[in-house]
Specification:
- The complex is a heterodimer of chains A (about 280) and B (about 150).
- Chain A contains ten helices and no strands.
- With about 280 residues, chain A is mainly α.
- In chain A, helix 5 packs parallel to helix 10 (about 255-280).
- Chain B has helices at about 1-15, 30-35, 70-80, 90-95, 125-149, and strands at about 15-20, 50, 60-65, 65, 85-90, 105-110, 120.
- Chain B is globular and about 55 Å long.
- The chains are: A mainly alpha (about 280), B alpha/beta (about 150).
- The interface of A and B includes residues 45 and 198 of A.
- Bound molecules: iron/sulfur cluster (SF4).
Chain lengths: ~280, ~150
């Protein structure tokens, strides 16, 4: 019964939370740019409108990929809610990310192709870091299970502060926020061509958007695991992290993908190694 | 199910994503159209986003005179937009060809090529007038929805 409720929460509450976060995000971003900004519920209006548009399909592959991307994102969130294996969650979300890229590649339009390649580079940049974060979690808890984390008496943040920073890098890339927004801009109004999303339209674009909400919740859920001991601690940690993302998004400009790969791998891997050695020795 | 269709209908009016196509304007109308997106007018508070992609757009804002060369581009963009869609012709040039209407390569206004829902006159129109034009178009869309029920 509890499991069933958790699955339901993962499937239904997670996208609602993701949409709300996106709405608050747009509002705060607008305020930081001294604009008034759209209503908090704007992402829901956008998605509902997209579902109401007539579908214009490039090819069946694209539709298939949109559905699989959404399904994989939803399943990975459900898995983290029911306390499954971190590695399983990782593989499921990686499959989703790959299908988004394949959907982009299935259309011959150059914008879609370039966007898909850039998305692939982004995936390549954050996946090794997430794996290293999971290894750090394994070294502290002795298991890849999410439930094993909740058996710990003190928050993991105390032992894995650098790995938490690495996870926030992954969050920035996953949210497609500056300076890592190569494949598509997070905010529609900043970008002329939407990269990997260029050829998606109507209901399928809405599906991709919902999948994006799931992914936001997934990564924020992983962040929340670092302070599992108290709900208030979790909330404070997530609010601070997301606000930091917003600030970084607003004060930085887009860089080149070479810079991203060099910087994120250089700094990220260094922090991972330092933190892992620290746990191993200590 | 009914609640969902109602929400979709309401959302259509709350999230008109606009695409701006410059059909060879003198840049006057374009500057005013882009001014609408700046913090001064901030149309994002109405849910309007400037997208550069016809497949994501609901509203097509056309500025400038249609000529024999760009009429194909205009039609192509219009056909790539999924339904329901609105077309707003902006400025004297978009309405009739304006000061360029007698030039040899000019076809005339936007409505010679694609159906236009709202005309925003002026040379160039004020940003307020352009916002009004989009809002007027949404009222038209709402009316069409009512009739469809
Ligand atoms: S209507 Fe006037 S301002 Fe607008 S494009 Fe024509 S000449 Fe320029």
């Amino acid at each position: 019964m509890v499991d069933f409720l958790l699955i339901l929460a993962g499937l239904v509450l997670a996208p609602l939370a993701g949409g709300l976060i996106a709405g608050v995000d747009r509002k705060i971003t607008a305020r930081l740019q001294s604009r008034y900004g759209p209503p908090i519920l704007q992402p829901f209006y956008d998605v509902a409108k997209l579902f109401g548009k007539s579908p214009s399909i490039v090819n069946v592959w694209q539709v298939f990929c949109a559905y699989l991307y959404a399904a994989a994102a939803a399943i990975s969130v459900v898995l983290i809610f029911v306390g499954a294996d971190l590695l399983l969650i990782f593989f499921v979300q990686a499959v989703g990310a790959v299908f988004l890229v394949m959907g982009g590649l299935s259309a011959p339009s150059p914008y879609s192709q370039v966007g898909a390649h850039r998305e692939l580079i982004q995936v390549l940049t954050y996946e090794p870091l997430i794996i290293l974060v999971f290894i750090g979690i394994f070294l502290t808890t002795g298991s890849f299970k999410v439930t094993a984390i909740f058996e710990q008496s003190q928050p993991m943040l105390l032992q894995l502060p650098l790995l938490y920073l690495v996870l926030t890098y992954a969050l920035t890339i996953k949210l497609r926020k500056s300076p890592f927004d190569f494949s598509t801009s997070h905010h529609g109004h900043q970008e002329i061509v939407k990269g990997v999303l260029t050829e998606y339209s109507g209901p399928h674009l809405a599906l991709v958007e919902i999948a994006h909400w799931y992914e936001t919740v997934l990564i924020l859920g992983l962040c929340a695991l670092f302070w599992h001991t108290s709900i208030i601690g979790m909330a404070i940690l997530l609010a601070l992290t997301y606000f930091a993302e917003l600030l970084v998004d607003n004060v930085t400009a887009r860089m080149t993908w070479r810079w991203m790969l060099g910087y994120v791998w250089g700094v990220g891997l260094a922090m991972c190694v330092v933190n892992l050695v620290w746990i191993y020795v200590g | 199910m009914n609640a969902i269709t109602e929400f979709i209908k309401k959302s259509r009016l709350k999230s008109p994503w606009a695409m701006h196509f410059d059909c060879g304007s003198c840049n006057g109308c374009d500057i005013e159209t882009l001014a609408v997106l700046t913090p001064v007018y901030d149309v994002e508070r109405f849910g309007i986003i400037n997208v550069g992609n016809p497949k994501h757009a609901d509203v097509l804002l056309v500025t400038g005179t249609v000529n024999y060369r760009n009429q194909h581009v205009l039609r192509n963009l219009y056909e790539q937009m999924p339904d329901p869609k609105l077309v707003v012709a902006i400025g004297a040039c978009g309405l009739s060809g304006g000061v360029f209407r007698e030039a040899p390569n000019v076809v005339g206004g936007v409505d010679k090529i694609i159906p236009v829902d709202v005309y925003v006159p002026g040379c160039p129109p004020k940003p307020e007038a352009i916002i009004d034009g989009v809002v007027e178009g949404l009222a038209k869309l709402a009316e069409l929805q009512q009739q469809a029920v």
